[in-house]
Amino acid sequence: MAATTLPATLAATLHGVAEVPGPLTEGRVLRALDSVIDPELDEPITDLGFVRSVTLTGSSVEVHLRLPTSFCAPNFAYLMASDAKDALTALPNVGVVTVELDDHHDSDIINSGLVADAGYKGTFLHEAENDLDELRATFQRKAHTAAMERSLTEFLRARPELAETALANVVLGDLPDDSAKAALLRRRVTIGLSTVDSASVLVDERGSPYPAVLAALALRRARSTRISIDGNAHFCRGLLATRYPGSEVDLMPKAEQSYFPLSSIIRTHKRKIA
């Protein structure tokens, strides 16, 4: 079966194409940090303004992170800081990597754990009941659900005559090659779902398609997940700007196509959305 063609930059990311070695620059550091995702908000920490500073000294790099509040969940905070250190350590020819989380109530604990490479359980000891793998997987599945909803909602908007039940028959090859589809493909790869053109789009977390009779309900449930993620992201952006005046310049505007007003869908399909 034919696979959907991926944009070059996405394909490079998915297939682990190594970056060409070169001098360590702030731009290369930020590109590496682009791969670090806030698991709850499903956006890179660079887009969210969470990278407070980057300091280069020869081949060594020191990065300071900040969050919207001092009481953001410690597991999420640790996960992002740890992922940031891993992303920077993987850069070619990099020297000492220092990542510190500023102004969090657990900054001292998290930063000490990062220095010692102690891992989440080694950092929080008895307070960490489990490692972060399942937490990460849970939010990766939610990110896929939200991306699926964005793609299918846009698909419906372009075809107002189409009934929601017909979404059960939509396959990846039917979707336009746009940013919504690229985001969906990336998230499918992350959770191990197929990206072949013939693969159904409306699927559960295991990749099982929904029957036509459940398509509308599945889409509504996916929409509630997407709205929750988008709403939290919007809220956190506002909190960060309030906490750190001037940080607005570090926030990447949300892509317009990532948000679809419910009123538009209601008008288009003349259905009441619960």
UniProtKB/TrEMBL annotation:
Residues 28-100 form the MIP18 family-like domain. Signal peptide: none annotated. This is Metal-sulfur cluster biosynthetic enzyme. Gene3D superfamilies: Fe-S cluster assembly (FSCA). Pfam families: FeS_assembly_P. It comes from Cryobacterium roopkundense. SUPFAM superfamilies: Fe-S cluster assembly (FSCA) domain-like.
